[in-house]
Amino acid sequence: MDSPVVVISGGGTGIGAATARRFAAEGARVVLLGRRREPLEAVAAETGGLALPCDTADRGQTEAVFARVLDELGRVDALVANAGGHGTGTVADTSDEEWDLSFRTNVSTAFVLARAALPALAASGGSIVVVSSLAGLFAGPGVAGYTVGKHALLGLTRSLARDYGRSGVRVNAVCPGWVRTPMADEEMDDFARQAGIGGREEGYAIVTKDVPLGRAAEPEEIASVIRFLASRDASYVTGSTLVVDGGAHIVDLPTIAVG
């Protein structure tokens, strides 16, 4: 049997890059999608993968990518819809353009990718893993576009699972909490400057102080969960949301002061 083919959006950094390394280490052929060529090609060189720069919210570009993947590799066994970002500000502070951008980067990327991948995934009995966020379950302050977009990804996951299960396609979502990615590092740097604290590490310590495991995740820890959901070990799991946040979502906020 040919090695499985896994398509990963946002594959050049963070969770996407760690996921590519995990699949490649187990013999999969990885296809890396994203808008920035340099990080994609760096991960492709490391994993023996195929780097295909594209805007995954663009239907024409995305369909062309899948046509090339099928032509060169012959199949698609899993899609990891990991691209995302954008969406800071309260509702009143968010412009129409910023709102549209938050949906394009967080929701349209996954929708357009899934639509393009479904025929190949149905043919292989494959699966989709959608990377949402803890913000897909709860609301943080001043991130309206991001929060609503990540919530929408869970609806997309359930709709796909409901409609395509009979075609043999499984679809699940992962909701990470804080993960040490380049994007999170930038957020911690900004937080440290605004709060007047010592730096990035102190920022991470503050935002995870009430997390039961007491730390942020490493990208490889999220990649392991994605790998499980895409594997035959999860063959009867579909439409599910798996929270990977060190236990943050179980904390009862009103009891923190007396804990």
TrEMBL record:
SUPFAM superfamilies linked to this entry: NAD(P)-binding Rossmann-fold domains
Ketoreductase domain residues: 4-185
Class of enzymatic activity (EC top level): oxidoreductase
E.C. number: 1.1.-.-
Keywords: Oxidoreductase
Superkingdom of source: Bacteria
InterPro entries, sorted: KR_dom, NAD(P)-bd_dom_sf, Sc_DH/Rdtase_CS, SDR_fam
Gene3D superfamilies: NAD(P)-binding Rossmann-like Domain (3.40.50.720)
One function term, GO molecular function aspect: oxidoreductase activity
Keyword Oxidoreductase part of the UniProt annotation: yes
Short name of any one Pfam family annotated for the protein: adh_short_C2
Keyword Cytoplasm: no
Family label: Belongs to the short-chain dehydrogenases/reductases (SDR) family.
Name listed for the protein in its UniProt record: SDR family oxidoreductase
Source organism: Leifsonia sp. NPDC080035
